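agent> step 3/5: call structure_predict on target 'Branched-chain amino acid transport system permease protein' (Candidatus Planktophila sulfonica).
agent> reason: downstream docking stage needs a structural representation; sequence fetched in step 2, passing through unchanged.
tool.input:
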Amino acid sequence: MNLSVVTTQFWSLVLQGLALGLIYSLVSLGYTMVYGVLRLINFANSEVFMLGTFAVLWVEITVLGHPVNAQPLHGFELVYTMVIALVGSMIACAVLAVLVELVAYRRLRARGANRLASLISAIGVSIFLLEGMRMITESRPATAPRLLEKWSFGEIAGANFRIDTVLAIVAPIIIFVALDQFVNRSRLGKAIRAVSMSEENAKLMGININRVISMTFLIGGLTTGAAAFLYTTVYENTVFNVGFNMGIAAFTAAVLGGIGNLRGAFYGGLALGMMEQFASAVLGSQWKAVTVFVVLVLILLFKPNGLFGEAVQQTRT
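tool.output (status=ok):
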């Protein structure tokens, strides 16, 4: 245990915790959006994230032709490449999330199956995607080309404001603000909140439930795809099981903030990212994943309704 690192590297740990926590927040939005509408956990969202990271590599290496050992890009070419990779990842994750809804949820819901059947179906889809990618990649990790040169804006109080770290902080905040405004102000957002409050009453109001649910999965897939792009840009690698720890962390962030609550998922991700960084600095990096499980257990034991104090049974999107 090294407590001195907290004082010597405090602001550096805060900055890294913000970057990691905001990536968690984007993935947790996928969990909390679906839960807000269906009252079910989309366990396949972790594999949606995993495939999103591979989609980023596929776009950068195969589509745009940048090999793993490519030199960093600059100017318009860099912006163009990163935008295409981001859009490709978001589209791939959004399409996959909608397919998961169609395969794992809609048919069972149409037949009146109970929630346990839907949960088992989602777990089955998750295992299918995980094992499928394991066989395709032969369990080998994949490396992303360093197209973004990791230059620094400078240091403040020991915190290195590197370009990829700043990007991982600014981009999720912009996405969250846009999503929050969309859910609260747009017609579709109001329909999502109406279905979240009462599916039966929403039907009586003429809302197309299936369309709203599909759009909810699509939005969750878009935020998860953005998280996959940022993760790949910062860490520059992926592997077939990268979604496991990310999924557990994102789910914990959603529970920590109050699952079903958009702002709760956002702040829960921030809090979890901070706790992970400080725990790994003090106890060692091997305790990073353990921290997530400890936080999840403690939240479920002492405050299962999350930090926002909203009852799970009455959660609103």
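agent> step 4/5: record observation. The beta strands are 142-143, 152-156, 159-162, 237-238.
agent> proceeding.
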